[in-house]
Amino acid sequence: MLTEIAIFLLDTVFTLFGMALLLRLWMQQVRLPARNPVSHAVFQVTDWLVRPLRRIIPGVGGIDWATVVAAWLTAVVFLAAVLAVTGGMPLELLPAILAIAVLNVVKWGISLIMWVTLLMAILSWVNPHSPVTPVIQQLTDPLLDPIRRIMPRLGGFDLSPLVLFIIAQILLMVLAGISANVFGFRHLL
Questions:
Q1: Residue 183: predicted pLDDT
Q2: How far apart (Å, rounded) are the C-alpha atoms in residues 183 and 189?
Q3: Residues 6 or more apart whose Cβ sits within 8 Å of residue 139
Q4: HEC readout, the chain
Q5: What is the mean pLDDT of the chain?
Q6: Residues near 117 by Cβ (< 8 Å), separated by ≥ 6?
Q7: Does the pLDDT value for residue 186 go beyond 60?
Q8: For residue 137, how many C-alpha atoms fall within 13 Å in the half-sphere facing its CB?
Q9: For residue 104, how far is the Cα from the chain centroid?
Q10: In angstroms, rounded to a whole number, what is the distance separating the alpha carbons of residues 160 and 143?
Q11: Which residues sit opposite 157 in a β-bridge?
């Protein structure tokens, strides 16, 4: 029971931090102003890891590679910690951990998309004039606009968030299958 609690706590802490790193990257890609409270909070939480990495890893092609590497390193540490807690040997499985960490970062990214999309849908019903609504719309519009072009509104309802949510869930299932079939580690992803 203590092992399961430890894994749960590790998963929660590392997933939240990994998602914060990916949110930072996502905000930079959609050119979200850094002066809004969401950006400010995310930068405060992630700067301690990203700033030192930026000295070593430059941004290339409009991508903040230091943030990408920070998310990957977070996933590597998470997987090693889970293996250590469960009695595994992280160093023996290091090549697999390095590869599964990539899948873990992708999983965090897809989960982040799902959570932000869900938050956007809830806010559009409950409080469409919330101060965070424009931030969330700026994040989700690049993902939802292609779906909106294909799928028109039905009776005034925008179903594109639901379609994006379903696509994201399918991608998570595919990732879990890859992790189980290729690496044999279904519980690590």
A1: 66
A2: 10
A3: 26, 27, 30, 32, 116
A4: CHHHHHHHHHHHHHHHHHHHHHHHHHHHHCCCCCCCHHHHHHHHHHHHHHHHHHHHCCCECCECHHHHHHHHHHHHHHHHHHHHHCCCCCCCCHHHHHHHHHHHHHHHHHHHHHHHHHHHHHHHHHCCCCCCHHHHHHHHHHHHHHHHHHCCCECCECCHHHHHHHHHHHHHHHHHHHHHHHHCCHHHC
A5: 91
A6: 140, 143, 144, 161, 164, 165, 168
A7: no
A8: 9
A9: 9
A10: 9
A11: 154
Angle at 180 between CA 176 and CA 186, to 5 degrees: 70
Query: CA-CA distance, 54 to 59, in Å (whole number)?
Result: 8
Q: Which two tokens stand for residue 121?
A: 């849908």
46-73 mean pLDDT: 96
